Amino acid sequence: MTDAAELTVRRARTADVVRIEQLIAPLVAKRILLGKDLAVLYGSVQEFRVAEEPGGLVVGCGALHVMWQDLAEVRTLAVDPLWRRRRVGHVLMEQLEADAVELGVGKLFCLTFEVDFFAGHGFAPVGEGLVGPDVVAELARSGDEGVAEFLDLPRVKPNTLGNTRMLKVLQPS
Fold this sequence. Notes:
Blueprint: E1 8-11, H1 17-29, H2 38-43, E2 48-52, E3 58-68, E4 71-79, H3 88-103, E5 107-112, H4 115-119, E6 124-125, H5 133-139, H6 145-151, H7 157-160, E7 164-169
Parallel strand pairs: 4-5
Antiparallel strand pairs: 1-2, 2-3, 3-4, 5-7, 6-7
């Protein structure tokens, strides 16, 4: 049985997008993740990291989406059901955090049902007011559904019900 130490975490390629869609599909069906069209996934492929097992199969994915100068969101973190409980999500999360630090981001946000997983990575539940009103006004212009969820806009309320808003302040390297 392969464990997380034998995985390769790398930047996603366009050839990985169909597999990413396959990984997230069961979570979308359960309304755990927000569904994304293939065009959206291709357009954001540069935000994704994937975990690949030694045979070349992508078994997990996750994305880091910069929202503002000092704020990024961890998005679309998913693991193949056959690979759950084998630390795949953890190695992806560690890489996404390293990417955030490299980009100069000081805070990571997530909207999740997986509170224990993210708490184990230093995230804590938060309420409103993560950014000032001037930033909210700028972000409200975005057509990105994830940004709408971050802002808790009325049109995305069905997507956010039951989720916990969590934040982690990163330590600069």
